[in-house]
Amino acid sequence: MISFAFATATRIEFGAGRSAHLPAAVAELGSRPIVCTGATPERFRTLLTGLSDARSWPVGGEPSVDDVRAGVAAAREHGADVVVGLGGGAVLDAAKLIAALVPNDGDILDYLEVIGRAQPLQARPLPFVAVPTTAGTGSEVTMNGVVTSPEHGVKVSMRHPSMLADVALVDPELTLGCPPAVTASSGLDALTQCLEPYMSPFANPLTDSFCVEGLRRAGRGLRRAYSHGDDLDARTDMALCSLLGGLALANAKLGAVHGLAGVIGGLTGAPHGLTCATLLVECCRGTVAALRERAPEHPSLGRYAAAGELLSGTASVDALLDWLAETVAMLDVPTVGQLGITPEQYPRICRQAAASSSMKGNPIVLSADELEEILRRSA
Asked: Pick from 197, 193, 337, 196: which is nearest to 264 by CA?
């Protein structure tokens, strides 16, 4: 018997030029917006000029606990009644967290998982409008915000169904300015977020349909978007892949790539998408090897073969692994060692990753030795 629940943003608008609807979307929700942007908000000056009584709040990288605290203080000082996230996944996460915390008492640590008290939100967050400018995390349609705690050396989440965006404006034109390195890391993250939920034991027919279309789009658009950054068709494919991956992961969980990436990102400060990209190939190889050895009849092996056809045109597990390895090499993705991880850190990384919520979506439980082997092969 099939039974599942599904949650997402209240309204999603997708397509070239949809970002022009931002002023109207904000006006429906409030009158004093605070706008979280990337480090160079002038890229979107034309878009921002349409917002009256707005305050900009730049997010220079992966947001830390203190960055979010400062953003909450700025939003309260401004009297913000609506929050806009205009940027990549880190910016959207920061905006989502600020929107959630402004109306709620206490400190962010009261609500964070793992390092905090994981209390549920008592007051409804401020309205939140998400406008992604990279095709990667799908944060515009997820109910969690990720934040770094340098003190603890980890990345952790705060999550609640009320943190879903009121409006998500996904405009592929906004990704045309992404440099090749950002296109590579965010695109491989988007691909991963379609691949892992497709293998997850929490998958359902609705998330499967998102994953299948997302993988098909990634197979068609990722390499082209990297090589020809002005190709709007390729950018559209990847923006849709990212959106579909966000819809899937929010309802079917992730896997080993994200389980390891969250820990490594907390230790190194490396961007999330880049960390996922460095781990993708060997996590897939390690999981496939474990399935073949311990669960050769597992349905995920057939799904890996189906993913191979969606990406490469050949329906086999080996075709999938070969296509991923070729793509990672073509997109010049660094190694885990180049991110600053040393072999001495492997045991700690694997212990923390094994306990992460992301790892629950892997189709088979990987042992500490298998996780360490993934890190060794990714170095």
From this structure: 337
Give 292-356 as a DSSP string. HHH-TT-HHHHHHHHHHHHHHS--SHHHHHHHHHHHHHHTT---TGGGT--GGGHHHHHHHHHTS
Give the mean model confidence (pLDDT) for residues 164-172: 96
pLDDT tens readout for residues 306-361: 999 999 999 999 999 999 999 999 999 999 999 999 999 999 999 999 988 889 99
Q: Which residue has the tokens 């042992």?
A: 367
For 9-36, letters b (16+ CB in 10 Å) and e give beebbeeeebbebbbebbeebbebbbbb
Nearest-angstrom CA–CA distance, 243 and 179: 20
273: number of CA atoms within 13 Å, CB side? Answer: 23
How far is the C-alpha of 81 from the C-alpha of 106, rounded, in Å?
19
Residue 8: other Cβ atoms inside 10 A = 18
* CB neighbour burial string for 94-115, b if at least 16 within 10 angstroms, e if fewer: bbbbbbbbbebeeebbbbbebb
Contact, 123 vs 114, CB < 8 A? Answer: no
Could you give the domains of the chain?
Answer: 11-174 (3.40.50.1970), 180-378 (1.20.1090.10)
pLDDT of residue 1: 62
Residue 89: which of 32, 160, 31, 165 has the closest Cα? 165
Tokens 């669960």 locate to: 295
Task: Give the pairing type, strands 82-87 and 33-37.
Answer: parallel
